[in-house]
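Allow me, if you will, to draw on your knowledge of protein folds for a short while. The matter concerns a single protein, recorded as an amino acid sequence and a row of backbone structure tokens. Could you please explain, in whatever detail you think fit, how the structure tokens follow from the sequence? I remain grateful for any guidance, and I place the record below:

…
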Amino acid sequence: MKEIIIIGGGAAGMLASLFASGSGNRVHVFEKNDRLGRKLFITGKGRCNLTNDCGQDQFLASVISNRKFLYSAFAGFSNQDVRDLFHSLGVRTKVERGNRVFPQSDHSSDIIRALERRMKELQVRIHLNSTVTGLRLSEGRVVGVTLENGADIPADTVLVATGGLSYPVTGSTGDGFFFAEQGGLKVTELSPSLVPMVTAESYITDMQGLSLRNVELRFRQNGKVVFREFGEMLFTHFGISGPLVLTASAKVEKNLSKGSLQGEIDLKPALDAEQLDRRILRDFEENKNRQFKNVLGGLLPSRLIAPVLSLAPVSGDMPVHRIEKKDRLAFGRLLKAFPFTVTGLRGYEEAIITRGGVSVREVDPKTMEAKKVSGLYFAGEVLDLDALTGGFNLQIAWSTAHAAGMHMGGRNEK
């Protein structure tokens, strides 16, 4: 029989407890909040995008940092295994756009309740409002943890599943990084990821609340295109957000460390320059005597008209029949490359995940056990692993938690 301690009652901690149970093991989950799964509750806007229904190659291609480390863990517990598990726990799932998997009910609480119910069936000891402040180490192995109230709790193995720094209101305050350093493990540079962007121009923030679908977003630095993708985005009081922007933030973070980025939105990606000019010319011919500003409603959302006009080559008051060809073509180019400047990213309070974490070079990829400290394991966001939006980061949590839980519970001892 083993005494197993899991620090953190989020996605990774809860799932790991299921696989660590059995064989007479006593599993304890210590959670600093008053309930389990607090961050899981708000994921996917409260709907819980629990994985992505894609093939292994696409899953690994969607991992930004240290994808090779995940080969073994994903093979051991794949996205299909996640769906099968929740189906066995009574939660039916569905697949939506982009292969995103959600509970059929659209309630993240169903995922949390299913895990919690199974934990109780397996007699996992759940300790809420219980903050772990440190590890107890002896001769190269972990022997327990110390709680905030001063109590020392002995253990044969300890799993750190405390999350990162994103959404600190949910309790993710970087505790796991302290525990890793306490054990002599390296923690790589940390930064917010999958996070909205800050822009310089007032005409961007003036459009706060406007959402654009089916646009292409591009970023350039020193004239070179560093990001280019198609999707949906949103203007905010500080800049831009939405799925397309969050994906971009993960891919251009290093570029932003070198300076600002020149952004461009192709508002008409389905049309090439020639097709767009024919469309504009048709609108102009049908409204020859109207002012330029009054013929744009068929081309643009109403809240985008004023910002576009502010950058257009002619005044919005000019009658359409007086607009020259060169100005009409310049207007078309503006619609294909609506410009703005990104100066930085928002902080951890709005970041979906944390980039960086416990160095995967110091963790066994098959078991998630620290190479330097026997009996000490890590799973989930605390590790230096991150991926794009779409359920990939939760899959990382599930896969690494499964590997750790299985090994801690003695189910796949070397």
Q: What stands out?
A: The mean pLDDT is 96. The longest strand covers residues 224-235.
